[in-house]
Amino acid sequence: MILHWSPRSPYARKVMISAHELGLVDRIEFRNTLVAIGRPNRDLMADNPLSKIPTLVLEDGTVLVDSGVIVEYLNALVGGGLVPAAGAGRWTILSRQALANGLIDVLNLWRNERSKPPQQQSAEWLSAFAEKTAATVDRFERSAGALGAGEFGIDHIALGCALAYADFRFSDLNWRERRPALTAWYDAFSERPSARATRPFE
Ligand SMILES: N[C@@H](CCC(=O)N[C@@H](CS)C(=O)NCC(=O)O)C(=O)O
Q1: Taking CB atoms and a 6 Å cutoff, what residues make up the pocket around ligand 1?
Q2: GST N-terminal domain: which residues (predicted)?
Q3: Residue 126 CB neighbour total at 10 angstroms
């Protein structure tokens, strides 16, 4: 399998961490693929017309897009426990994953807005991104107990990648301030071998 990936992408890191947790790293060829919202990568577009990573190309040429879909595929391949196939817990876990993915989405939009020349940045958007980020991180702070109690899964992976991305791109955010439970949860997450092996870098 070929994974279009980058060491800076939090979505691609979700797949990387899952591959480590599931013992699949040796079956994947990691292809470092440059993407940017304003610069379509035409080589990647042959596989994924949206020019997004992660994109997984299977041995038979089938292309899978979207980190959540790719993690479900890898998990199913080895009968792993990262995404429960059924049961009430499945919806809680998938919804938590979606919330963490949404946090990455907001941080990405925020970063794109901040990278524009100052006169083109929207103060309204910047303040909306800050408010949504704070509210989402607060929500995770309140549910940190439940997070810690559950089996390690795709929801934890997505949240860990979102918070690591906040550290990587928003050193001024101070998301740990007044969020001791989430900070403790994240510290434990960061020490997992799969997280240590996939830390983002430039
Ligand atoms: N929902 C997608 C989001 C993937 C995504 O937006 N990836 C970013 C990299 S972090 C990207 O490819 N950006 C390039 C672009 O938007 O053109 C997923 O979960 O895989």
Answers
A1: 9-11, 35, 37, 51-54, 66-68, 101
A2: 1-82
A3: 13
Residue whose C-alpha is closest to residue 54's, from 106, 84, 18 = 18
In a domain, 67, yes or no: yes
* Whether pLDDT at 88 is above 90: no
3-state secondary structure of 39: strand
Task: For 101-148, write each residue's pLDDT tens digit.
Answer: 999 999 999 999 999 999 999 999 999 999 999 999 999 999 998 888
Specify if 189 maps to a domain.
yes
Nearest CA owner, ligand 1 atom 13: 52
Domain boundary among 77, 96, 130: 77
Place of tokens 């790293």: 25
Q: pLDDT of 52-65, one tens digit each? A: 999 999 999 999 99
